[in-house]
Specification:
Elements lengths: L6 H12 L4 E5 L2 H13 L4 E5 L5 H12 L6 E4 L14 H29 L2 E6 L12 H20 L5 E8 L5 H14 L5 H12 L10 H12 L10 E4 L9
Parallel strand pairs: 1-2, 3-4, 4-5, 5-6
Bound molecules: NADP nicotinamide-adenine-dinucleotide phosphate.
Length: 255
């Protein structure tokens, strides 16, 4: 479960733990990762911690080795990543390369380390956290949008590669999700944008301005976690190469 020391990843780790799964909490920050693992253990779940930066081959290898020290891994959720709020004009080619490395090649590194042992045991789940911006990109964050598209694309290629192995590969594509950090940022932005004072009003107006959708609100990290839990379960044996959008209808297939 990469990038589970905060945000969406934290919610996924906590939900999978309530399903009886031993989760490996991962991040670079030791304090945050340990806090999530402690919270899981405090509610009767099982959690281990693997720390490390996934942007280098050596870093990813160390994370995989630490994760496998507790036994085989059945489920890989590639969630670690970052969003850079830059425009076309602001982004340098270095930003594009760094974003691709962090958001895409980090996932590939974990796939290369963990999928072979899933194949050997004839069961496994690989789940990429993608996003609606992969299909409906905005003018801003072009490097980020493109990295999400690559995550979707590689998940389907991997599904075809894993034909007849018992291992599936899928994508969960969130819309705009209300993580703690995002809520704080919106609350600070509210006055300048005239979004109101009460949180309910701020959320309604910010959603309309930033990610209009059929529910009139942002998604919650737990809602992404529920889709991941479904794909990770035996209930989803017949699903591979698919994308489950959890975005309240942000991405429009029919206008
Ligand atoms: N939030 C949204 O609305 C949204 C929508 C669509 C898709 N997504 C995707 O969902 C994922 C999680 O987003 P979030 O909003 O929950 O972000 P977040 O709260 O910033 O969490 C990111 C996680 O990734 C880890 N991480 C970042 N860079 C890393 C690196 N180089 N090596 C290892 N770990 C790294 C962080 O751990 P440390 O800080 O401890 O290193 C943290 O656990 C991202 O991949 C993002 O692209 C988010």
């Amino acid at each position: 479960m990469t990038g589970s020391s905060s945000g969406i990843g934290e919610a996924i780790a906590k939900l999978l733990a309530t399903e009886g799964i031993t989760v490996v909490v991962h991040g670079r920050d030791e304090g945050r990762a340990n806090a999530v693992a402690e919270a899981i253990r405090a509610t009767g779940g099982k959690a281990e911690v693997a720390l490390g930066d996934l942007t280098t081959d050596a870093g990813a290898e160390a994370v995989a080795t630490a994760a496998l020290a507790g036994g085989p891994i059945d489920i890989l959720v590639n969630n670690a990543g970052f969003i850079g709020y830059l425009s076309w004009e602001q982004t340098t080619t270095a930003d594009w390369a760094e974003t691709y490395n962090t958001n895409v090649i980090s996932s590939v590194r974990m796939i290369k380390h963990l999928v072979p042992q899933m194949r050997e045991r004839h069961w496994g789940r690989v789940i990429q956290i993608g996003g609606g911006l992969s299909q409906q990109p905005s003018a801003i964050m072009p490097h980020y949008n493109a990295s999400l598209a690559a995550r979707h694309n590689l998940a389907v290629s991997l599904a075809r590669e894993l034909t007849d192995t018992g291992v599936t590969s899928n994508v969960v594509a969130p819309g705009a999700i209300l993580t703690e950090g995002f809520q704080t940022a919106l609350t600070h932005m509210a006055q300048a944008h005239g979004w109101g004072d009460a949180w309910e009003e701020i959320e309604r107006n910010a959603t309309q301005a930033m990610a209009p959708n059929d529910t009139g609100r942002f998604g919650r990290p737990q809602e992404i976690a529920m889709a991941v839990a479904y794909l990770a379960s035996p209930l989803a044996d017949y699903i591979s190469g698919a994308t489950i959008r959890v975005d309240g209808g942000t991405v429009r297939t029919v206008i």
